[in-house]
Design brief:
single chain; mainly alpha; 7 helices
Length: 166
């Protein structure tokens, strides 16, 4: 049984609801334009991916205890750089962006995935032929493509945050 002291929440009228939605959209757009990355963010992510690709090629292309250790070290280096940079991003901005970790750091964007896959296969093939200078070049290309993909996604997010939010 309801007592007379309880009240039902008052629903806003159509104009009030429209104003609240407009204000929320404006706040999201303002926040998206102000989001920034820490210094060396994309450079360090790209470099860590390049190291990981090179270590992958060494681990697969020339299996020995040393190259398998390099493979593990490359994975750990990428994980550490990603963790540090994500912590710095959160501290700098005070927020997480929907899609940022998956698209920018984990490379699920089309350009990041393609550059990583192509560079990895090419580096592994170069490692099988003991062409270590080619492994280095393909690793750098893969890291640069990965970083460029992250920059591109962030630019698109700033321009249209509603479209890129998950």
């Amino acid at each position: 049984m309801l007592s007379t002291m309880e009240s039902t929440p008052k629903l806003p009228d159509a104009a009030g609801a429209s104003t609240a939605l407009s204000d929320a959209e404006a706040a999201r757009t303002t926040l998206a334009r102000r989001v920034t990355t820490p210094s060396w963010f994309f450079t360090s992510i790209g470099a860590a991916v390049a190291v990981q690709i090179a270590s992958l090629a060494a681990g697969v292309g020339a299996t020995s205890p040393w190259t398998l250790a390099a493979l593990v070290a490359g994975i750990l280096a990428l994980a550490v750089v990603a963790g540090v940079q994500l912590t710095r991003f959160r501290r700098l901005n005070g927020v997480w962006l929907s899609g940022f970790v998956s698209r920018v750091v984990l490379g699920t964007g089309a350009l990041a995935s393609a550059s990583y896959a192509i560079a990895s296969v090419a580096a592994i093939l170069a490692a099988f032929g003991s062409r270590w200078w080619l492994v280095a070049i393909w690793s750098l290309i893969g890291g640069a493509g990965y970083a460029a993909s992250g920059r591109r996604w962030l630019g698109e997010y700033r321009a249209e945050p509603a479209r890129h939010a998950r």
